[in-house]
Each structure stands twice: as structure tokens, then as C-alpha cells.
């Protein structure tokens, strides 16, 4: 019954998993894009995607001011087809113009797919008449739909800290993201340490499947993740910074160990990545500003720290050879929707 009546503009912020997600659940409908493990993330204030979806005479996708065709565009419009079906809309999907701007590097290990597919999902839902505002039930429903485009996108519907449970149901009904409210604000920062420019060579989706099929460490990675999630959530609720940091680092290095044992090995880091990690550890051990590291499927390092120590720690890391930039990012807000 629903038909697009207006253009819609959505903003969704990237998120970085403090407890990592790596791997798809086997034996389920691939359309559901169910993760093998849960994850816990921090939404980022500055790193975001803004996407406008509007009815048009023909499908067209523009990213950062340039028209995009081929596989990336096909993935965008396949997601619009999916949303049209999930919303039980009648008739063929109307053609749409999708105009998106990434306020972060694309495909570089900074979760541009999370903010990108979250923003696309929200804007399309607004355009298709499936959402007029993001109340709690709507946000939860769109989170599950965003997950089908990108697993990490499910978490970008909310600000602050968010947990995504992997679930066990074959239909994905218990694979849900939920915000983790704090009894009072916790003034943390995530330093995003850029150690390279440009896109990474191996995409996350292909890398995950290679790890599942070939890494001898993959079963242990999956089996041990639930305990990390519970420990990280408990640390957040108790505002136990060192406990949260230790769980975060442990999750990161387990994931990268699984990647390294994949055939062929997945090495997303470069020399500067290792030097930044080493610098954070040395500062912590020497009584300097305290940070804890994590890194996704890319060369950049993210460092969790207290807000008051962020300037000093950022200055130290900016001096590491090979570092291009250090961003100091606060926890970000909920995703938003505007009908235009």
C-alpha cells in the first residue's frame, strides 16, 4: 500500500566495535546477513554519512559528488529492493535517486558501511512511507533491516554504546541491537589514528568467509566472544575504564589472530599500525596518558581514553612515524530522519 510521497534525508554515524564482530553465521539464509558473534560498539560523533533518497525517473547513485555505477551501485539498489519487500509495499519498487556523502574515508576500515547502510535504510524507509519518525519500535525495526545490508549498520541506529546480540533463531528474530544506557554520562574519547590513505585491499565480507573456512582459530574466536560481550557491558555499567579497555584489546587481538591464521593470511595492518599500538602500550606502562587500542579490518588504530587525557595522548601518537592524522572523537548521537 505504501508509496513514496516525498524525499527523505537521513544522518547516521559510524560506530567502532569495542568487542569485535567477525564472521557470518553458517547455515542460515544469507539474505539475513546474521553475524556469527555479537558485538559492542561506540557510535562516533564526527564520522557520519548523510543520505538523501528521493523518487526519480531512473535509479541513480551518487557518492561524495560522483555518480557511481557497477557493483557498489547494484548493492545499494538491491538493498532498496529488499526494503521495499520488507515493508510489504505493493507493485514494483519506484526508481530512486540516492545521494550520499561520507564524512569519513570510504572502505578504509573506519566502518563507512555501518553509517552508509544505516543512513540508506532510514532514508529509504522515509521515502517509501515506512517511517515518519524514529521512535523506539521503528528504530529497532530499521536496525534489523540495516543489518541485512551491513552487519555493523544495525548498531548505527543509536548513539553512545550499543550491543548487538548474535542470537540463535534461524529467522534472525533474536539478532537485535540495543542501546546500553549509562546511569550518568561517561566522558570518553576515541582517538582515530590514521596510518594510511585510500581503500583497503581485502573487503571485510570476503575476509570473514575466508576466516570461517580456513582459520583454525575461528571456532575459538566464536566460542569466546559471548564472555567478552558480557564483561564489556558490565564494565560500561560500572564505569570501569581499565576493565573495559582490557576486554577491548583482548577482543581485538583475538580477531586479528584469527585473521592471520586464515589461508591466505589476512594482514590489514601496516608498520605504522604496529608502532602506534606499541606507543600506546609504552605510555601506559610508563605512567603516561592511558589508552587502550582496537583495530578493525584496516590499518587504522582506534584508542579509547578518558576525555581529559585525549589531547596529550593524541599529541604523542601524532608524532609516531607514518601517522597522517589523529582525530579526537566523542560518543555520537542517534541516527536521524527528516522528510523533505
From TrEMBL:
<keyword id="KW-0444">Lipid biosynthesis</keyword>
<dbReference type="InterPro" id="IPR005935">
    <property type="entry name" value="Mev_decarb"/>
</dbReference>
<keyword id="KW-0456">Lyase</keyword>
<keyword id="KW-0547">Nucleotide-binding</keyword>
<keyword id="KW-0067">ATP-binding</keyword>
<feature type="domain" description="Diphosphomevalonate decarboxylase-like N-terminal">
    <location>
        <begin position="12"/>
        <end position="176"/>
    </location>
</feature>
<dbReference type="GO" id="GO:0019287">
    <property type="term" value="P:isopentenyl diphosphate biosynthetic process, mevalonate pathway"/>
</dbReference>
<dbReference type="InterPro" id="IPR014721">
    <property type="entry name" value="Ribsml_uS5_D2-typ_fold_subgr"/>
</dbReference>
<dbReference type="Pfam" id="PF18376">
    <property type="entry name" value="MDD_C"/>
</dbReference>
<keyword id="KW-0443">Lipid metabolism</keyword>
<dbReference type="InterPro" id="IPR029765">
    <property type="entry name" value="Mev_diP_decarb"/>
</dbReference>
<comment type="similarity">
    <text>Belongs to the diphosphomevalonate decarboxylase family.</text>
</comment>
<feature type="domain" description="Mvd1 C-terminal">
    <location>
        <begin position="192"/>
        <end position="322"/>
    </location>
</feature>
<dbReference type="InterPro" id="IPR036554">
    <property type="entry name" value="GHMP_kinase_C_sf"/>
</dbReference>
<dbReference type="Pfam" id="PF22700">
    <property type="entry name" value="MVD-like_N"/>
</dbReference>
<dbReference type="InterPro" id="IPR053859">
    <property type="entry name" value="MVD-like_N"/>
</dbReference>
<dbReference type="InterPro" id="IPR041431">
    <property type="entry name" value="Mvd1_C"/>
</dbReference>
<dbReference type="GO" id="GO:0005524">
    <property type="term" value="F:ATP binding"/>
</dbReference>
<dbReference type="GO" id="GO:0004163">
    <property type="term" value="F:diphosphomevalonate decarboxylase activity"/>
</dbReference>
<dbReference type="GO" id="GO:0005829">
    <property type="term" value="C:cytosol"/>
</dbReference>
<protein>
    <recommendedName>
        <fullName>diphosphomevalonate decarboxylase</fullName>
        <ecNumber>4.1.1.33</ecNumber>
    </recommendedName>
</protein>
<dbReference type="InterPro" id="IPR020568">
    <property type="entry name" value="Ribosomal_Su5_D2-typ_SF"/>
</dbReference>
Amino acid at each position: 500500500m505504501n508509496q513514496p510521497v516525498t524525499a527523505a534525508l537521513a544522518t547516521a554515524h559510524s560506530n567502532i566495535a569495542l568487542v569485535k564482530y567477525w564472521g557470518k553465521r553458517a547455515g542460515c539464509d544469507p539474505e539475513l546477513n546474521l553475524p556469527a558473534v555479537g558485538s559492542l560498539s561506540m557510535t562516533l560523533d564526527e564520522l557520519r554519512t548523510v543520505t538523501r533518497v528521493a523518487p526519480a525517473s531512473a535509479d541513480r547513485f551518487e557518492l561524495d559528488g560522483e555518480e557511481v555505477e557497477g557493483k557498489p551501485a547494484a548493492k545499494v539498489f538491491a538493498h532498496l529492493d529488499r526494503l521495499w519487500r520488507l515493508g510489504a509495499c505493493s507493485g514494483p519498487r519506484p526508481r530512486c535517486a540516492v545521494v550520499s556523502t561520507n564524512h569519513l574515508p570510504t572502505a578504509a576500515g573506519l566502518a563507512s558501511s555501518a553509517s552508509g547502510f544505516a543512513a540508506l535504510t532510514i532514508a529509504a524507509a522515509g521515502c517509501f512511507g515506512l517511517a515518519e519518525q524514529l521512535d523506539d519500535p521503528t528504530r529497532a525495526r530499521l536496525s534489523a533491516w540495516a543489518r541485512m545490508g551491513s552487519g555493523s549498520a544495525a548498531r548505527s541506529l543509536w548513539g553512545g554504546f550499543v550491543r548487538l546480540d548474535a542470537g540463535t533463531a534461524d529467522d534472525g528474530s533474536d539478532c537485535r541491537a540495543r542501546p546500553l544506557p549509562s546511569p550518568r554520562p561517561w566522558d570518553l574519547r576515541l582517538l582515530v589514528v590514521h596510518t594510511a590513505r585510500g581503500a583497503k585491499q581485502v573487503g571485510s565480507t570476503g575476509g570473514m568467509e575466508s576466516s570461517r573456512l580456513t582459520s583454525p582459530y575461528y571456532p575459538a574466536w566464536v566460542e569466546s566472544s559471548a564472555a567478552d560481550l558480557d564483561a564489556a557491558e558490565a564494565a560500561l555499567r560500572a564505569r570501569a575504564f581499565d576493565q573495559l579497555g582490557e576486554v577491548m584489546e583482548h577482543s581485538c587481538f583475538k580477531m586479528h589472530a584469527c585473521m592471520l591464521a586464515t589461508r591466505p593470511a589476512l594482514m590489514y595492518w601496516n608498520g605504522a599500525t604496529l608502532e602506534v599500538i606499541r606507543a600506546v602500550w609504552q605510555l601506559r606502562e610508563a605512567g603516561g596518558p592511558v589508552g587502550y587500542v582496537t583495530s578493525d579490518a584496516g590499518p587504522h588504530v582506534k584508542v579509547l581514553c578518558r576525555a581529559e587525557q585525549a589531547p596529550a595522548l593524541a599529541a604523542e601518537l601524532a608524532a609516531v612515524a607514518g601517522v597522517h592524522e589523529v582525530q579526537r572523537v566523542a560518543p555520537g548521537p542517534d541516527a536521524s530522519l527528516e522528510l523533505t
